[in-house]
Amino acid sequence: MFAALWFVLAGSAAAHEGSVDLTSSQVSCKGVSLYQDGYYRVSGRCDGLVYPYETTYNRYVLWGKTSVRGEMIRIAEVDRGYFSGNIASPFNEMVITAEKDSLVRRPSDRIVLTGSLSVFNFDKSVTVAPTATTTPSTTTESKGVTVQSSTSTAGTTAGTVIGKILTSLLVIVLVIVGLVIGASLIFRNRGSVSA
Fold first, then answer.
1. Quick check: 157 and 60 in contact, CB under 8 A?
2. Rounded Cα gap, residues 26 and 19, in angstroms
């Protein structure tokens, strides 16, 4: 009974959904992890990866370190700077390694980048968001002409920023899916012409 309660409490405290951040002096990877249909969907983009890493190590793979057991589980291949994959276990750390093959089961010792997952903060105690306000002000010049000007103050909420990130990632995923479907149709047409 106590073990089951501890497992539930430990599972709820682990970081699963949030923003992905893996950064070094030469490489930066950003993304998002969202829970959907029993899996954590991890998608994002890297900037600064060098292809190939070494002669035989010409692939990059993103791994998640599970929160409960601390084991490394493959999430996705980083293909031309983009990654998108699933992981069933809750995780809180990530690693990108250089690999000979993209479908390996264990990470190599060639660690390129490490990072963490920052949990989304859905703090419901703040209910009032800053809004744009306009305050008229008047100035009188020496000729008796009145000039009216307005100043505007706009606030940005964390939800707006997260929404923009999610929208950008969705566009990236849709472009990748479109490219894959287009390539599939081209190769299918080539196969039917040559047969």
1. no
2. 20
Q: State residue 185 phi and psi, 5-degree precision.
A: -65, -40
The residues, any chain, with a CB within 8 Å of residue 139's CB and separated by 6 or more, are: 146, 147, 149
Beta-bridged to residue 77, according to DSSP, are 61
Angstrom distance (rounded) from CA 133 to CA 125: 23
Angle (nearest 5°) at CA 51 between 49 and 54:
110
For residue 148, which phi and psi values (nearest 5 degrees)? -110, 130
pLDDT at 136: 56
DSSP string computed for 104-115: -SS--S-EEEEE
Q: What is the pTM of this model?
A: 0.56
Predicted confidence at residue 157, as pLDDT, reads 65
Checking 166-170 for CB contacts under 8 A at 24+ apart, the result is: 166/32, 169/31, 169/32, 169/43, 169/44
